Amino acid sequence: MLLGLSWGEWASITTVVVFMAGMVSLLFKYIVFGPFQDDIKDLNNNFKALNNNLREIRISIEELDKRADEHDRRLDRQHERIKDLSYKIRGGNY
After folding, report:
1. Does residue 94 contact residue 87 with C-beta atoms inside 8 Å?
2. Is 5 helix (H, G, I), strand (E, B) or coil?
3. What is the pLDDT of residues 14-28, one digit of tens each?
4. How far apart are CA 25 and CA 19, in angstroms?
5. SS3 for 2?
6. Exposed, middle or buried: residue 2 (CB in 10 Å: 0-12, 13-18, 19+)?
7. HSE of 3, CA atoms in CB hemisphere, 13 A
8. pLDDT of residue 10
9. From CA 58, how far away is CA 51, in angstroms rounded?
10. Could you tell me which of 85, 79, 81 has the C-alpha nearest to residue 94?
11. According to the model, what pLDDT value does residue 92 have?
């Protein structure tokens, strides 16, 4: 006997408390947290898609940088050619 209750009564009380805690946890799991799990899965999928988009954008930016550098070099060459032609047209005087 403990606190006026027999061991069988304590076992029954413990069983009822554990059962009720299990029911409350199931209710929380399926009713409260269930919809959040779907939202979290959608959010994870959206993050994956966003990361893929950012990777593609980064690759596109790198390609555009390469093209811009090439155009810059071509413009420099054209500028030098124009200066040379101007020099030749003016007879060597600026």
Report:
1. yes
2. strand
3. 999 999 999 999 888
4. 10
5. strand
6. exposed
7. 3
8. 81
9. 10
10. 85
11. 65
Is 36 within 8 Å of 30 (Cβ atoms)?
no
* Structure confidence at residue 88 (pLDDT): 86
Q: What are the pLDDT digits (tens) for 24-82?
A: 998 888 888 878 888 889 999 999 999 999 999 999 999 999 999 999 999 999 999 99
Closest by CA to 82, choosing from 40, 19, 74, is: 74
Question: Among 82, 83, 81, 80, which residue's Cα sits nearest to residue 94?
Answer: 83
* Triad 69, 75, 81: Cα angle to 5°: 145
Question: Half-sphere exposure of residue 75, counting CA atoms within 13 Å on the CB side?
Answer: 6
33: DSSP letter: S
Q: Which residue has the tokens 């810059």?
A: 72
Note the helical H segments in the chain.
7-27, 34-89
- The pair of structure tokens assigned to 81 is 């050619």
- Lookup: tokens for 22: 């299990």
